């Protein structure tokens, strides 16, 4: 078996053990086996491939290039099947998209098909060589899938195993037609006949689709060396009871060997640790808080501008140390900041005005404009001048009336009445 060079080597850290009652054969020490495992912030993975108990060489290849994972089952015999599967995983790895785009992932599989065909022509392998390809790309809560052949992809969700891919095989067509059951297909004499694979048809196309995954989901990608030896119900039970992805891969390979190991068997397990939903909610909440903060700033700015416009367009008359002053703004303060300023002083003394007017000036007597404020001051001045003139006239009259001589009554003429 030839594995893709971008695999990460298995960690030396001690892993959790299997649940009780699920001890299996020790595949780690077998000759012709290989494994890869690792983890990052969002995914954990484990993979194992084994030559099996019958075959003399391993034609399977697997790809562990997070977030891309694949299994390719080679066909064509020695120096052919393993070459085809190796070319396929290498090409899928180099052509895989950066995001969970199933169309582009399918295009990567189709590019691998072209490379396998070209490899047979250029002598990298043998004519007639080919392989299957089942691959996934996991990005947060989205998983893109591309698939050709009879390797399989399963999803273990909340303890239930769901098969996601359809085998491109003769027996699958018989199952679809209702002529045989799925259990009968596993042991059917024609179960090895593939109806679609990489390496034979330049126009081959890959099945592809995208689905949602969530934290806690486990994805199983395997060659038919597992699915032909182990029933889906046992795959489910083993996957549920295995503590880690690597343990699950090891246990499933061991189950295939215990079932007969008639073919090479390869299993890649991927656990979704963090589907990104929680972080997306956190980001959404932060965006909402930031948007609310910006909105408050904008509203504050608008209110400030409106207040400034209102203050600058407001006028009033006030008592400026005993004289009438013209003020721009409003007679108030905000956080200790005065909202008005003295625009002009006048010579009009507040003491010359009526008591009611003086009281109003202490609190600020509003004016609709500067012109109205000036007009009011002029009216005060005219009123004061008029009052002073009237008072002077009244005083003058009063003084004149007091100083005038008394009128002498007329003396009767002499001889009157004579």
Automatic annotation (TrEMBL):
CDD domains membership: PP2Cc
Cited PROSITE patterns: PPM_2 (PS51746)
Chain ranges of the PPM-type phosphatase domain: 44-272
Protein name from the UniProt record: Protein phosphatase
Keywords recorded for this protein, A-Z: Membrane, Transmembrane, Transmembrane helix
Stretches with biased composition (Basic residues): 1-11
Region named Disordered: 1-41, 348-379, 391-418
Keyword Transmembrane among record annotations: yes
SMART domains registered for this protein in UniProt: PP2C_SIG (SM00331), PP2Cc (SM00332)
Gene Ontology molecular-function annotations: protein serine/threonine phosphatase activity
Transmembrane segments: 289-311
Alphabetized SUPFAM superfamilies for the sequence: PP2C-like
């Amino acid at each position: 078996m030839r594995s893709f060079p971008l695999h990460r080597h298995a960690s030396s850290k001690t892993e959790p053990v299997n649940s009780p009652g699920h001890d299996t054969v020790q595949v780690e020490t077998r000759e012709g086996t290989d494994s890869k495992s690792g983890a990052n912030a969002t995914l954990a993975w484990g993979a194992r491939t084994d030559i099996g108990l019958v075959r003399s060489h391993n034609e399977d290849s697997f790809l562990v290039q997070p977030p891309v994972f694949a299994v390719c089952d080679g066909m064509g015999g020695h120096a052919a099947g393993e070459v085809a599967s190796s070319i396929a995983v290498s090409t899928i790895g180099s052509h895989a998209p950066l995001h969970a785009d199933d169309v582009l992932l399918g295009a990567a599989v189709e590019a691998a098909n072209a490379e396998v065909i070209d490899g047979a022509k250029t002598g990298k392998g043998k004519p007639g060589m080919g392989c299957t390809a089942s691959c996934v790309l996991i990005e947060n809560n989205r998983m893109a899938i591309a698939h050709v052949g009879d390797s399989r992809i399963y999803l273990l969700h909340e303890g239930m195993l769901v098969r996601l891919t359809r085998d491109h095989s003769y027996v699958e067509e018989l199952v679809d037609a209702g002529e045989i059951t799925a259990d009968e297909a596993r042991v059917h004499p024609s179960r090895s006949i593939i109806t679609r694979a990489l390496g034979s048809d330049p126009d081959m196309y890959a099945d592809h689709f995208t689905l949602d995954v969530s934290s806690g989901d486990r994805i199983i990608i395997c060659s038919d060396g597992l699915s032909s030896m182990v029933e889906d119900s046992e795959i489910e039970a083993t996957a549920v009871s295995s503590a880690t992805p690597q343990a699950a891969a090891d246990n499933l390979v061991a189950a295939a060997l215990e079932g007969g190991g008639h073919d090479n068997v390869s299993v890649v397990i991927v656990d979704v640790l963090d589907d990104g939903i929680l972080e997306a909610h956190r980001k959404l909440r932060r965006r909402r808080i930031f948007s609310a903060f910006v909105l408050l700033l904008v509203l504050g700015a608008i209110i400030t501008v409106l207040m400034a416009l209102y203050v600058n367009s407001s006028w009033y008359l006030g008592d400026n140390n005993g004289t009438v002053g013209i003020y721009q703004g409003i007679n108030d303060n905000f956080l200790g900041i005065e909202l008005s300023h003295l625009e002009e002083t006048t010579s009009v003394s507040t003491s010359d005005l009526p008591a009611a007017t003086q009281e109003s000036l202490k609190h600020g007597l509003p004016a609709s404009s500067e012109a109205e404020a000036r007009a009011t001051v002029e009216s005060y001045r005219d009123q004061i001048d008029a009052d002073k003139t009237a008072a002077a006239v009244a005083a003058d009259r009063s003084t004149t009336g007091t100083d005038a001589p008394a009128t002498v009554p007329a003396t009767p003429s002499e001889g009157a009445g004579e």
